Amino acid sequence: MERMKEMKASQHGHYTEIMDEKEVIRVSARESRCVVHFYHTDFKRCEIMDKHLAKLAPKYFETRFFRVFVENVPWLVEKLQVKVLPCVVCFVNGVSTDRLIGFEELGNSDAFNTAVLELRLEAAGVIQKKSKNDSNPIYQVSNSHRSAGNDDDFDLDD
């Protein structure tokens, strides 16, 4: 419960903006999973990415979502070699593990679905879907059909 309070206090569940370069480094290093959007106000596609990430942030409370204006973080832009916008960098346990550059992996269209981005971020390991029945699977294997003492596999030739 205490961890949930800390996460809520640190803006989990919201898509926010961090202005200070040192704060970006501190947050991305401290959080277990982070999605960081490097943007510029002059790029329409950055605005489109913002809308999709804003939809995903409340859905994946365990992951911290935020954006940074590239002109506010010149050292980080250079260090991470951000050259094409929008650029979304995925951090897992403080390490940059993946990045999305532009919309190429999202169908190369401005009209991509949020689900496409969601699937891509899940593949990167930065978001984790929780199944409604994680502890109670729909299908279970039952051994009740086997006769007592007979553990042989079913054989179609018999």
From TrEMBL:
- List the InterPro entries: Thioredoxin-like_sf
SUPFAM superfamilies, per the entry: Thioredoxin-like (SSF52833)
Q: Specify residue ranges for compositional bias: Polar residues.
A: 134-147
Q: Which domain of life is it from?
A: Eukaryota
Region described as Disordered: 134-158
Query: What protein does this entry describe?
Result: Thioredoxin-like protein
**Organism, per UniProt?**
Crucibulum laeve
